[in-house]
Amino acid sequence: MTTGLLLTGLWSGPVFAEPQAPRLVLQITVDQLRGDLIDRNLEHFGDKGFRYLLDNGVYYTNAHHRHANTETIVGHTTLATGTDPSVHGMVANLWFDRSTGTPFYNVQDPDYPLLATSGVDPSTEIDPTQRAATSDGRSPTSILSSTLSDEIAIANAGVSKVFGVSIKDRGAISMAGHAGTAYWFSKSEGRFVTSSYYMDAYPEWVNKWNDAGHVSAYAYTDWTLSDTHDSYRFIEFDDADWETELPGFGRTFPHPFGAQDSKYYTTLLTLSPAGDELTTSFAASLIDSEGIGSDAVTDYLSVSYSSTDYVGHIFGPSSLEAEDNLRRLDKSLSTLLAHVDETVGLENTLVVLSADHGAAEVPGYLEYLGVPAGFFNFDDIDKEPAAKALIAEFGVAQDLIASFSQPYVYLDDRLIADKGLNKADVARALARELQNMPAIAYAISSEDLASSAVAKTSVSAAVLANFHTARSGDVYVVFEPHWFVGDFDGLHVASHHGSPWTYDTHVPIIFSRPGMNAQRISSRVESVDVAPTVAAYLRIKAPSGSLGAVLKEALSAQ
Fold first, then answer.
1. Shortest CA distance to 540 belongs to which of 28, 146, 90?
2. Tens digit of each residue's pLDDT (9 = 90 or more) over 39-50
3. What is the structure's pLDDT at 19?
4. CATH C-level class of 377-438+440-479
5. By three-state DSSP, how is residue 518 classified?
6. Distance, CA of 292 to CA of 300 (rounded, Å)
7. pTM for the whole structure
8. Residue 63: beta bridge partners?
9. What is the average pLDDT across 200-213?
């Protein structure tokens, strides 16, 4: 054999065409889309939404977040940065700011007030995490790592158009990053808004969309089932007593939106497919007005759909409402993809779809099936043994705790210092007593996390991935599977998320572009892999804190 033939034999193998750089990266995040829900509902989806992505892409069916606190800002920022909350810093929707002694809402920033709005009106917010915000200003300055959208802007000398759109401020801001522009829906204003971090005045197209009657069009209409009754898996559960019944909205179909001037009108829109429909309409207008994907430079657009999360909290992921909402989400997704095809061309677009977290089943539904589950309430348990133990050891009990902001317990640093106590000893003792309480699986002190004095388990690894020295609390609480706090700042919700258990960590990951070989990959991958994979696809550097692996199937499928 000649040398040439030998080399030919050594190097023979599959040759993949290098994909042309896309004109648009469209990153879609579906809030609370648990990893099993696409396949559960696939037979009732059309051909142009989820099915289109699966027919033209790589679908990772066993993808998971690897951090413990599976909440909205944590998951979104992890997808955006390719790193853990221990690095990007967004450890919770709310954390306790020790410097001010007040809760801190993740994207609040008093330096950048909302433009031409009166701010958040707590009485109209169904999302209680925003009620603790001490400012109506918003910005991405609390995100401590660069994002994929930042890196696209950096690689293209700031020429790339970078935007994020969502009903939720944190859903838009986290993905748009520091270099992009974020728009989100203000329930108090009934309009899409932004803050002075991004601009001094709204572009005319935003005012035009806001004034066009898109929001008011739902007045005196109902959310009705979109398909025949016998096509729904959960049709017999339409009046389940474990669902949350909101005044005027009810827990059975049809769900009325009521008058536009009613107190909860805009909130009810977000508790239904209307929220995703409004998001899609605004995103389409943005594409047209900002010239997204109109030249050879790669642009970035994030669309975060929030209705699945709101519907899941109120009715549960296994409810008739959740089932119909996903069918309508598929239609919204079809509408968005069709618009991108008309304006940019799907052949010029890399679509990436995932979720910020999964969801727990409603305890009532699980108990109906014979599966142990329940709501946890600190007020309903006997804390006397723990209090006695702490008093015996430190001379004080309840006053040691400054705040419980799920999943963290924050100690009162001033009291501990005044009494001359050792904070590490107090944190470890409190963790020990909490773990003795029913329905608490683990309580881990930050002192032990910082010193690596914890058993190496999957749960401790997830908690450690969530640990940030300045922002995390002094004790991390993990509830038993299927147990969670149902009282959410005075609002009782049917379902929740935020645990390290698989129903909360499991999410879909899909990379799609025409020409990709359709594949289903069942090996485990992680959400931190998304950002570095897209960066590798674009041949740019990964975000600054990136810890994920490049998913080779998404690169070689072209």
1. 146
2. 999 999 999 999
3. 64
4. alpha beta
5. coil
6. 8
7. 0.94
8. 507, 525
9. 97
The torsion region of residue 536 among left (phi > 0), alpha (psi -120 to 50) and beta comes to: alpha
**Tokens found for residue 355:** 């979720």
pLDDT digits (tens, 9 = 90+) for 65-78: 999 999 999 999 99
Give the model confidence (pLDDT) of 276-325 as tens digits. 999 999 999 999 999 999 999 999 999 999 999 999 999 999 999 999 99
- Spatial separation of the C-alpha atoms in residues 127 and 120, rounded to whole Å: 11
| Dist CA 274 CA 270 (whole Å) | 6
Token pair of 250 as six digits: 């009810």
Q: Which stretches within 352-405 are classed as H helix? A: 363-368, 384-394
Top-confidence range, 210-224, 400-414, 480-494: 210-224
- 111: tokens are 């330096």
Q: What is the pLDDT of residue 490?
A: 66
DSSP string, 135-146: -S-B-STT--S-
Residue 473 DSSP one-character state = -
| pLDDT at 16 (0 to 100) | 46
Query: What pLDDT does 125 receive?
Result: 58
Per the CB < 8 A criterion, the answer to whether 360 and 480 are in contact is no
- Within its chain, how far is the Cα of 158 from the centroid? 27
Backbone angles phi and psi of 363, in degrees to 5: -55, -40
Q: Right CATH number for 24-366+501-556 from 3.40.720.10, 2.40.50.140, 3.60.10.10, 2.40.50.100?
A: 3.40.720.10
Q: Return the exposure string of 435-468: e unless at least 16 CB atoms fall within 10 Å of the residue's CB, then b.
A: bebebbebbbbbbbbeeeebeeeebbebbbbbbb
DSSP 51-88: HHHHHTEEEEEEEE--SS---HHHHHHHHHHSS-HHHH
Q: Give the pLDDT score at 117.
A: 52
Residue whose tokens read 């099936």: 369
Angle at 356 between CA 120 and CA 534, to 5 degrees: 115
Q: Where are the domains of the chain?
A: 24-366+501-556, 377-438+440-479
Burial class (CB in 10 A: 0-12, 13-18, 19+), 396: middle
User: Around 521, how many Cα atoms within 13 Å sit in the side-chain half-sphere?
Assistant: 20
Residue 2 has pLDDT above 60, yes or no: no
pLDDT of residue 335: 98
User: What pLDDT score does 4 carry?
Assistant: 42
What is the predicted pLDDT for the residue at 184? 98
Instruction: Give the torsion sign (CA, 485, 486, 491, 493).
Output: positive
SS3 429: helix
Q: Which of 27, 100, 190 is nearest to 402 (CA)?
A: 100
**Residue in 169, 103, 111, 109 with CA at minimum distance from that of residue 131:** 103
CA gap 427, 444 in Å, rounded: 9
Distance from chain centroid for Cα 379 = 29
What's the rounded Cα separation, in Å, for the pair 501 and 349? 34
Of the candidates 294, 299, 295, 321, the one whose C-alpha atom is nearest the C-alpha of residue 310 is 321
What distances in angstroms separate CA 85 from CA 92, 319, 469, 510, 524, one per listed residue? 9, 31, 11, 22, 20
24 DSSP β-pair partners: 299, 349
